Amino acid sequence: MPSTAFHLALPVDDLEAAETFYGGILSCPRGRSSPRWIDYDFYGHQLVVHKVAKDDMPAVARNPVDGEAVPASHFGVVLDWDDWDALQSRLKSAGVDYAIAPTTRFAGRQGEQRTCFVRDPAGNHLEFKCFRNPEMLFATEGFDYE
To answer: Any idea where the VOC domain is (predicted)?
Structure first.
């Protein structure tokens, strides 16, 4: 586990569906749990899903990014190029619907990256991305996009 692992807690309305998605499709190892929540190892970080009533699930705001209406509230992981490809194969094999299909953003420009968005069964948005040049992850100079 990285010494700077983040902790993220999410609302879900069905723990069994969350287990199928996070534990099954994404292959996140399961940690501690109770009848109301489950911990997962999400790429070395602690993700906790908490059961809430369907009516308590938050609405999703969107923000335009490179021609897409990106969910403003989302989380995810930056993978290396080959791991991103392998994840796409798993998502497609599992029949996961994309909220935003796999695409290349900022093609041919600094910060070029491949990205996709999926929703977990409760509607939480996850982004999986990879950079052509991983050094661009936190770069601040020389960008020509809004």
So the answer is: 4-131
- Asked, for residue 49, whether it belongs to a domain, the answer is yes
Confidence of residue 137 (pLDDT cuts 50, 70, 90): confident
What is d(CA 51, CA 64) in angstroms, rounded to the nearest whole number? 30
Distance of CA 44 to CAs 15, 30, 31, 74, Å? Answer: 21, 12, 12, 18
On whether residue 143 sits in a domain, the answer given is: no
Q: Judge whether 141 lies within some domain.
A: no
| One-letter amino acid for residue 137 of the chain | L
Segment 36-58 mean pLDDT: 92
Tell me if 31 sits within 8 A of 42, measured CB to CB: no
Q: Which residues contact 90 (CB under 8 A, 6 or more apart)?
A: 25, 26, 27
Mean pLDDT value across the chain: 90
| 12 and 22 Cβ atoms separated by less than 8 Å | no
The range of the structural domain enclosing residue 43 comes to 7-136
Number of folded domains in the chain?
Answer: 1
